[in-house]
Automatic annotation (TrEMBL), chains A, B:
UniProt superkingdom: Bacteria
Entry annotated with the keyword Nuclease: no
Domain Thiamine pyrophosphate enzyme TPP-binding: 372-510
Protein name, entry field: Acetolactate synthase large subunit
Domain Thiamine pyrophosphate enzyme N-terminal TPP-binding: 1-106
Species of the source: Rhodoplanes tepidamans (Rhodoplanes cryptolactis)
High-level lineage: Bacteria, Pseudomonadati, Pseudomonadota, Alphaproteobacteria, Hyphomicrobiales
Amino acid sequence: MNGAESLVRTLVASGVEVCFANPGTSEMHFVAALDTVPGMRAVLCLFEGVATGAADGYARMAGRPAATLLHLGPGFANGIANLHNARKARVPIVNVVGDHATTHQRFDAPLTADVAAMVRPVSHWVESCRDARSVAAAAARAVQAAREAPGRIASLILPADTAWSPAAGPSPRLPVHAPAPVSDAAVARAVAALRAGRTALLLRAEALRGDGLAAAGRIAAATGARLVCDTFAPRIERGAGRVRVERLPYRPEPAIAMLSGTETLILVGTQAPIAFFGYPDQPSELTPPGCTPLVLAHPHEDGAAALEAVADALGAVAPAPVAPFRIPERPPAGRLDPGSLMRIVGRHLPDDAIVSDESITGGFQHYAVLDTAAPHDFLSLAGGAIGDGLPVATGAAVACPDRKVVVLQADGSAMYTLQALWTQARERLDVVTIVYANRAYKVLMDELRIVGAAEGSGKAQALFDLADPVLDWVRLAEGMGVEAVRVDETGAFEDALASAVAARGPRLIEAVV
Amino acid sequence: MNGAESLVRTLVASGVEVCFANPGTSEMHFVAALDTVPGMRAVLCLFEGVATGAADGYARMAGRPAATLLHLGPGFANGIANLHNARKARVPIVNVVGDHATTHQRFDAPLTADVAAMVRPVSHWVESCRDARSVAAAAARAVQAAREAPGRIASLILPADTAWSPAAGPSPRLPVHAPAPVSDAAVARAVAALRAGRTALLLRAEALRGDGLAAAGRIAAATGARLVCDTFAPRIERGAGRVRVERLPYRPEPAIAMLSGTETLILVGTQAPIAFFGYPDQPSELTPPGCTPLVLAHPHEDGAAALEAVADALGAVAPAPVAPFRIPERPPAGRLDPGSLMRIVGRHLPDDAIVSDESITGGFQHYAVLDTAAPHDFLSLAGGAIGDGLPVATGAAVACPDRKVVVLQADGSAMYTLQALWTQARERLDVVTIVYANRAYKVLMDELRIVGAAEGSGKAQALFDLADPVLDWVRLAEGMGVEAVRVDETGAFEDALASAVAARGPRLIEAVV
């Protein structure tokens, strides 16, 4: 058995069953090992940012890590932006990064780079093997590190000769600690604050799903506490039958206004709210004056259990009222706009769908429409690095083959990782992508106005214009094997969406808004 | 004047006239400054890898740096692979990397990352400003650092508040040292070796152009020395009327065989040859036994002047015979293949064209066909990180608006930075892209065979197959506003190429090979 086979066997034994791959020459023996070892699904991605974003989406839905297989420093670098997002989403990922053979590294070959230096800024755990016999144990440690609560990025750098040289055998799966329990004192402080009133719970991660969310609902029902979630939470269970949670607004002023009057902001799996960007003369911290943040559960702690403990201590046994199922009214016939688009999505979202949202300006203001749509998981751009909507959807579809995935996707951001559409077609993934074709970096046009530079020679405005030439998303999708249609009227969009939802397999709708 | 305006004015004063930009919110004031300051052309790229690759192509042809404008750590990271290539090409680039406002950095906002740590591995020079008044001087130093011979990557990290806060004014251009002269001793050693015979000159950079190449030719004519260039030289002046230079083969065995019998390998602007990858039981160093490498000029030294000094010392005044102009014979009618494709390119390459080559397996073996084509500049994938063919062509076309740019582009690699086509359409750049559609990562299929894993369950082979679904390059190009056609016969390809060469503006030909 060579090092490569020992790696793949160890990953499979450790519960890693999917590898999103974009390999090169230095990874050839790892690729060859996929033929020998059963139990690992290899999903080819035509760009590394697709592979890392798919691993993020997979982990958000599967709750366990996928592997990526990446080629040397530059190949890893192409995946950094979506690893940044995954890191902020706090999901587990195991990156296998090939490097030149140890004997080859001292020469300045064209692809020689400082792989470890590129890997470190987005990895919680990095190990670089120097011989084949250490690969299996390192791989087991990588999976263990990735699975440590709340989920971490582990990167294993494997020189080519650690793949092709003889190794002993695979390593067994290593134990993973459960998330740390929250202290009784933290629970007691939260209970006291809730009894005092004027509280809000700011929720993220497990607190936005299942038992955690139900417990938060009981607390809200018993005490009148508001339930709020981070602006970009990695995953929320929403829709009919679920406890409704308000989303913190994106811009500082409305965020502060929303929290005004709250005396204690109880944090569950998140930090006190921070503005997305700093602006002249605006605060970075969004906790309003007179409001005190209070940590119930840090991200590495068991936020769901903490909420249940608080609810029990309060005697809050009555479940919260949940969102009703309400089909949004059909918008009037006419030009499609982001508002009518979301209403139509709400009309046709299938039960138990997964929504991957990177709609930026287009979707944000109409987010609440889906509060009463069919129950679904809603995945947001957790790290702000654009280009995760399509890859996250791709990975989520691999993790959940029986659920429909719907992507709400801004056009500018879609261009960063459009290669994901090819993988969707290749793997026959059940993904419907709705491209908000506003043909601009609309959010930046807004920002430019905010900084007071909307006038001028037009050179600045031109940097946010995507209309010359127009991006033709039907051709782009078809070019990668995905059936697509363009619509600009409400009726046509509803027909296209109904048809795409009824079918299986990848579809794209270019919605001109 | 704010920091942003002082930056742009300083860049323009320092000779930086083009900025390949993909900005975000934190760069908004820099964008706004473009409206105020004349003299800077802003070219929008829809992905950062396009911006950095275009800056590389611009610098290779213009001989001076362009700026890039990139958004925070993840945006910079998207540009790393092509900065890696630019670094190996040893060209000057000035990266302007926005960061969160200094007041905002201590909070863990979604886009917070260790920008400097991401920037360092591919930058020769890094500076991070902390206040607006230091921006102008730092920008002048950045340009100076980038222009230091032979060309370096300078990255200036600018927190948003250094852009919006008041600054004094622009900084003047700083002096740039000429490349270091080669010592008389180095010249004398090379002369002695050449007089002894059985020498080869291994050339790169300035030694492959103009006076440097002419001097190398005179040396070869006088001494019988062979002229060889690096496998992937950043830029070569080739074709009819130029001194012919042999290209070092890609694989170790033929490279060593080519140099066998050479007693002294004189290095001009490059290092002793190294294999692209390490392989089991194959050497990394390609200098054959019995051959001694001898440095005439290090990369930072003036290789062209050194060659002229050597030629003068040898009394080598007679110019070398140059390549004749020879129109390749028209290939027989029938299915197109890489060989017939290159012959047809040789028939239609216009005078003074720029060829951006990322054809990988498709073009490599037919490279010599263009030795006798019309004179042209030939640009190669200097750093091996795939995805530079289209961006480099884009930047070269911006640098040389009066020259036709022809891209020889493998299909797999093209997918990494296909967004470059949009910028070509937007800027009406005169680029003809020929996609070698072999619908596979062909080089990796070869590599897999070499490591002995071509058989097996087929999972491995499937990772190199791009035929399910087929990438439709006509639709992909048209989706970004570039006129395109698909051909699979020699006659149709010749018609398509002749028509594309005769027209102005971007065209793409999907050549099924």
